[in-house]
Specification:
The relative contact order is 0.11. The chain is mostly helical and 318 residues long. Bound molecules: zinc ion (2 copies).
Length: 318
C-alpha cells in the first residue's frame, strides 16, 4: 500500500518539479539549487494530494451532519488561508529550509559521537519489522510525544499564547486543524522530527506518519455531529472528544489547564488523568473571548496579537 502511495507521490513530485519549479530556476539561472528545490517540493505536493481527497469528503460530511450552522464565514475563510499556507504554501518550504540544516548537524554530531540510534524495528524480529507493525509503533511513540507537547502548549504561558491562536476559533470546521501560529508549528514540527530521527524512523516512513496524523486531525476538527461507537471512541480521538478540548472554559482550564490533549489516541489522557468523556458538542473558544478579549480576525493580526500577549499579559487586542 505504502509503496503504491510512494510511487504516486514520486511521479507527482517529479511532474510538478519539471513543469513548475525547474523552468523558474532556469529563468533565473539558479540550477545550482535544483536538488534543494526538488526536495522542497515534496511537502506542498503532499498537501495538494491530501486536499484533493479530504476537502470533498469533509465538505460532504459537514453538510450532512453539522454540529451548528456556519455563522462566521470570514473566520472560516481565515482558517482556509492557514490550511493553504501550512499545507501547500510557504510554511512547509520555510520549515524544510530552516529545519534541514538543523537535522543534518544533529545527524553529523550523532555520527561523530558514535551514537547509534535505537532501532525500534528490530525489537522483535519477525513482528516489529513488518511494515504495518513498525508504522503503528512509530505512530504511537510520536503521538505520545505529541500528547506531552500539547500539555506544554497549555502549561507554559508563552506557549499557550501561541497555541491560543488555535483555540480562539469559535466556529470550528475541518479547516481549523491548521489554524496555528507559525512559531508554534515550527517548534512542534522540530520536536517531532528530532524524536523521529532519534528513534530511527526512515524519512520515507516519516512522510506517511505525518500524513496519517494530519488526515485524522483534520477530521477531528470538523463541524461534524459524529459520536463514535463505544469501543472505537476509546481507540481513536474523534470530533466529539477533540471538540471538548476546544470547549469554552472546559478545554483550557482546571488542574492541567485543559482536558483531552490526546492528538490521535485518547489513551494518554486516560493514563495521565486528563480525560473528559462527557457527551455533547460544546461551544468552542476561550473564556475571555466572552469578556471582550480579541485574538485577531485575520491571520496577520492573530500572529501579531499572540506576540503582544507574550510581552504584555494584559493585552486585550483592543
Ligand atoms: Zn490545545
Ligand atoms: Zn484542535
Amino acid at each position: 500500500m505504502i509503496s503504491v502511495l510512494d510511487s504516486a507521490l514520486l511521479a507527482t513530485q517529479q511532474a510538478v518539479y519539471e513543469h513548475a519549479v525547474q523552468p523558474v530556476l532556469l529563468a533565473f539561472g539558479e540550477m545550482r539549487l535544483a536538488e534543494l528545490a526538488y526536495d522542497a517540493t515534496e511537502w506542498p505536493v503532499i498537501g495538494v494530494l491530501e486536499f484533493a481527497v479530504m476537502v470533498p469528503l469533509m465538505m460532504a460530511l459537514e453538510r450532512a451532519f453539522p454540529v451548528e450552522a456556519v455563522h462566521d464565514r470570514r473566520a472560516v475563510i481565515t482558517d482556509m488561508l492557514y490550511a493553504l499556507l501550512h499545507r501547500i504554501g510557504v510554511f512547509p518550504v520555510l520549515a524544510f529550509l530552516l529545519l534541514t540544516p538543523v537535522f543534518d548537524s544533529i545527524e553529523g554530531l550523532m555520527r561523530l559521537g558514535g551514537f547509534s540510534r535505537p532501532d525500534l524495528d528490530a525489537l522483535w524480529p519477525g513482528l516489529t519489522d513488518r511494515p504495518l507493525v513498525s508504522f503503528l509503533m512509530y505512530l504511537i511513540v510520536l503521538d505520545f510525544v505529541d500528547y506531552w507537547i500539547h500539555r506544554g502548549q497549555h502549561a507554559w504561558r508563552w506557549w499557550w499564547e501561541l497555541h491560543a491562536v488555535h483555540h480562539s476559533q469559535r466556529q470550528m470546521t475541518f479547516w481549523s486543524d491548521e489554524r496555528n501560529h507559525l512559531f508554534d508549528d515550527l517548534l512542534r514540527d522540530a520536536i517531532l522530527a528530532v524524536v523521529a530521527l532519534l528513534i530511527g524512523v526512515a524519512p520515507g516512513q516519516f512522510v506517511w506518519l505525518v500524513v496519517a496524523s494530519r488526515v485524522i486531525q483534520q477530521w477531528q476538527h470538523a463541524n461534524l455531529r459524529l459520536r463514535l461507537p463505544g469501543p472505537i471512541r476509546h481507540l481513536i480521538v474523534g470530533p466529539e472528544f477533540h471538540r471538548r478540548h476546544h470547549g469554552i472554559g472546559v478545554g483550557h482550564e482546571g488542574r492541567a489547564q485543559g482536558v483531552n490533549f490526546g492528538v490521535l489516541f485518547p489513551w494518554w489522557d486516560q493514563c495521565f488523568g486528563t480525560v473528559d468523556w462527557r457527551d455533547g458538542f460544546v461551544p468552542t473558544g476561550i473564556r475571555d473571548q466572552l469578556h471582550g478579549r480579541e485574538y485577531g480576525r485575520g491571520l496577520l493580526a492573530q500572529h501579531w496579537f499572540a506576540l503582544r500577549r507574550i510581552l504584555n499579559p494584559g493585552f486585550t487586542g483592543r
